[in-house]
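Field notebook, page 375. I keep forgetting to write these up properly, so this time I am using the form the group agreed on. The chain and the ligand, calcium ion, are recorded exactly as supplied. Prediction of the bound pose follows.
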Amino acid sequence: MSKLKRKNFIKGIAAGTIALPFVIRGLGGGQSAQSQSAPGVITNKKHAWRMVTTWPPNFPVVGEGCALFAKWVNEMSGGRMEIKVYGGGELVPALETFDAVRNGAAELGSGASYYWLGKAPAAAFFTTIPFGMNAQQANAWMMGGDGLKLWEELYSDFGLIPIPGGNTGFQMGGWFNKEINSMADFDGLKMRMPGLGAKVLQKAGGTPVLLAGGEIFTGLERGVIDATEWIGPYHDYLIGFHQIAKYYYSPGWHETGSVLEVIVNKDKFEALPIDLQQIVRTASYRVNHWMLSEFEVKNAIYLEKLIKEENVDLRKYPKDVLAQLKIYTEEVVQELAESDPFAKKVYENYRQFMKRASIWANSSEKIFYEELMSS
Ligand code: CA
C-alpha cells in the first residue's frame, strides 16, 4: 500500500467514531417508499431503503460486505428493492446507527451488538465476549441454538429485528513494544482495548486507553500507548502497525469471533411483502458467510506477508498469562450478568452452549490441530 493510500485509509477510519471499522455506495436510494399494500402481500411496488452503518466509509471487508448486501437484495428482488448504504457519519453518526433504525430515520443498519451494551447489557453476548465462542460456534449458537431467538427477544423491545450479518473470525492479540512474559508485564501497560477486554486489562493492572481508529497509529508511534489491538493481519497490515511495533501477539483472546449484525426496523420489515422479507434475511445470511470467508482468506495471505516480507516477530501469550486473563474475564462477565436479569439469562444460555460445544471441539478439532497441524 502506498503512503498516500494508507493516509487516505487512516483518514477514512478517523471519519468514524469507533474502534472497528467503510462504506461503499449502495444502489440508487432516496426516500423510503412504504408499501401501501397489506403486509406480506407480494406486489410490484418499489422500495427504496437506507442502510446506516457503524463502519467508517470504505472500510475493507465489512463495508464491502454491506455494499454486496445491497447489490444482492436488488438483484434477488428483480430491482424492486434498492438499498443505499451510508458510512458512519454520512447520514447519522456511527454510534447513532441503532437509534436511527429504531426511530425509522433509516430502515436498515449494520454494526455490532456490543456497541449497544449501554442500552442493554445482554447485547454484549451477541457479538463476542473475551474467551468466548469462535465463529463456527457462534453461528451454531445463533442458528441452531437459542442465540438468535434470545437476540430477537432483546431487540424486539427496541422495535428492531437482528440478523447475523458478518463475522470477523478470530482476531489477533495486538501489537506491543515490550514483551509479555508474565502478568507483571501488564502493570501500567497503556493499551488500546475496547469493550469487556478493557475491563479485563484493568483487572490485570493495565490502563485501557480509548483512541478513535484514526488515532491509534500515531498514538503507538509517539508512545501515548504501549500496545494496541486492532483486528487481524489484513486490517493491521493496511494500517502499518508492523512499521512501529516490535511484537505481534496471538491469540486475540478478547475477540474470538465477533458476530456483526444487520438490524431492521421491525414495523418497516413487517410491512414488506413476504418475498422481500425473505430476500433481506437471505442476503444477510449470505453476507454473514461472505465476510467470515473474506476475513479468513485475507488474514491468511497477509499474515504470510507480515512474516515473510516484513519480518514480524510473532509471539504467543504465555499459557499462564492467558489462564489468568480468563479468570479475570469470568469476573467481568459475571459482574455484567449480575447487573441485569436478561443479561443473566443470555449468559447462562451462552455458557451452557459453549461448554457442550467445547467438549465436542476438544474431542475432535483440537486433537486434529495438536497432532497433525502443529508444524
Ligand atoms: Ca478488535
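OBSERVATIONS:
- The pocket of calcium ion is lined by residues 171, 229-231, 255 (CB under 6 Å).
- Confidence is low (pLDDT under 50) at residues 11-37.
FOLLOW-UP: compare against the apo run.
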